[in-house]
From TrEMBL:
This is SGNH hydrolase-type esterase domain-containing protein. Residues 414-557 form the SGNH hydrolase-type esterase domain. Pfam families: Lipase_GDSL_2. GO terms for molecular function: hydrolase activity, acting on ester bonds. It comes from the Bacteria. Coiled coil: none annotated. InterPro entries: SGNH_hydro, SGNH_hydro_sf.
Amino acid sequence: MERLPSMDPEFFYAYADDSGQIAIGIRLDGTVYVAQLSEIVAGLQQDAVQGATESDNAVGLFGFADQNGAVALAITAEGVVVGNFEPKGLSAVSTYLARAPQIQGLNILGSACKLRYGGVAVDLADLKVAPATSVSETVKDYPLAYIAPITMPVQEFLKLDAAQWLGYSSVAIESVVNQSTGATLTPGVDYAYTENGKLALINSGPAISATVKFVGYKERYDLVAYNLVSQSLVIRQGTERRITAHEDLYRAKPQSGDIPLYSVYVVGSRIQAMIDVSEWRGVRNRESGAEQVALRQQNRYRLRRFITKLNRGDGVIVTGYGDSNTALGGARGDDSAYLPNRPNVDTYVFQGDYLLSAFEADFRVAYLAAVGQVTVNGQVRYKTSPNWSVIDKICSGYGYKFAADRNPGSREVVYLNQGIATSTSGNTAQGGTTPARLAAMLNPAGYRTPDLVIVAFGMNDRTDAAYVSNIEQIITAAKNAGADVIVVGPHLTNTFSASFTKESWHLVQRRLMECADRMDVAFMPCELFYAGKNRGYTGLSDYSLTRANFANHPGPSEYRMFGEALASSFL
């Protein structure tokens, strides 16, 4: 074969066979073309890793680089082929960036990329993101106390949960002074602090009053899009906030003609993260769409009794059975916690001190004015829990009406909230397999047996060895009572949560999926909507997850998106 530098204008570097046909080439945008090897390329796409330019260059033993120095095709020391291959699932209407833009400070280097759609490559320009505000503040009389054994940096925010909060999701501490002695304290020696602004003494002893000087960084979620009207890369700017920039009310929205490409998380004067959202349209993902469709069909088959009832217009009862992310309020500790729709469930919308603080009370007012509400058991309940998305989709998709405080009639759906905060799937402390609680769920006071049970434990179980066997007991009891079941795994948690590591979270999801397959019940695949490339569904940095308490409670927008994913998995 011979090298053909410019025989075909689509390629800047290529080889041809003896008949003059191009056998392998590198396009101007850095993607690779291999003739008559589509099956092999498909296999490479399945296994290829698309890393940053620097890591590509570091691991490649042999490779080709494009005009920007980015590796287009390389072989690693482990013998793995990596490259900038075309994404899977492309069609004539697909749009994608041939290579992710690099970030330099607040600059997004779009000129090093090309946008491809309809077989056309479009040149892009660099963009500059506006910084968010950085605020210098001083807090006097800060109660600096010893709370628990800690070191710097603090890896689990809950260890300092009892400390006073400075009111920002990201801070930099400049100085801490003991007001009694005037001594300046040393971070990592005298005190430690979390990135989100809570401080505590490292050594045990009496609490002190301190003067804390710090910089609070406001944050913002912008949107990078390609606008088909102006035919250019654009930035849609979100609203900067202390703690709630990730909520629906403040995130940038696409405008007319926009093709969303990246969600940009701006913290102070830096871009903290850039999340690829280009493969997502609502709950549909270009790359995993076929898997989503297959799983939905499987779930509908496993819920065929419930789906048949909906198609007939039978009255149905849906029960939520889980922990605090099901309950969203309500008492616990005695038998009254077993009552369906007991007082205060579905009322505790902002499950954590951060969203309940006085710093951004305007968010709570605005959200409660906009969210759906129903009156159940004489009390206003807010439709924040993910399970309400299921109820709403039954109503909109099957012509049902919501009914409360009685068994449902024809084309009516009743929702029974039987979640209990802090509970596990176990048989102690009012857990899911506690006989009295399980019996109360299957024979709810004032109602008949539910038609569908949404089982959502795991956030408090974590990797408990008995977790799956407990879920199996709940499934067996529900099926024996005549109810269909869908199992829902725990959502992903914040970077500094003690609940899961990425590895343990994936392990829990896989254990649940195996359990659901073995028990022949439906399963909500959280892994298709969180972590890795799938974080594009929420468009959020992992640091913005579970913001209500920076541990395991999401904010309203995260609950909404989780609920939409749940509903789409079988309705």
